Amino acid sequence: MQAMSQDAQPIAAQIVLDTIRQRRTTDLLKLRPDPIPQDILENILSAATWAPTHGRREPWRFTVFTGEGRRKLADLFARAYAGSSAPDHASPEAQQNQRDRVMKAPVWISLELHIPQPPKFPQWEEEDALACAAQNILLAATAYGLASKWVSGVAMISPLTAQELGAPELRGFIFLGYAAEAPKDSTRAPIGEKVRWVQE
């Protein structure tokens, strides 16, 4: 790979920093139904695989639901919710709500934790690697002008949902779509409130 010139480095850094700052969590009700092209999804998932992973264990797996395939996920969420400990788990309306939610986003991506066997590192390291992969998905989606949200409701981390996907554990799902409106601006506390420097 050709080395990046000194002049280009600040531009590349600014692009990355701008993408990080532009990422927003977007509600399902604020998405358009437009499908997302396959090549964009593949590039986003490829970005996920470049997350840091101790020993190159790559403990992540993803199942992507699009188009009519979302109906399988919708039914799975409804069954998982019915079997959960949620106060309204037996309510047909609540179960139908789980189905309806899935169809409001054009793409759903599972966040599956598959720890290679035999275990070699502490589980928290593998979980953190999956979280880094999820962040790469969110940032790559932002770079493509997509809205996103990482969700982890009872149906989305249910052992039943995990079993149906062939996943030892689930850490939720990310849904993607095109925003129906521009996201609101946001703020974060100044780094001076969160960072301590030790320089001597």
Automatic annotation (TrEMBL):
Residues 20-178 form the Nitroreductase domain. Its cofactor is FMN. Its EC number is 1.-.-.-. It is an enzyme of class 1 (oxidoreductase). Keywords: Flavoprotein, FMN, NAD, NADP, Oxidoreductase. InterPro entries: NAD(P)H_nitroreductase, Nitroreductase, Nitroreductase-like, YdjA-like. Belongs to the nitroreductase family. PANTHER family: NAD(P)H NITROREDUCTASE YDJA-RELATED. This is Putative NAD(P)H nitroreductase. It comes from Deinococcus xinjiangensis.
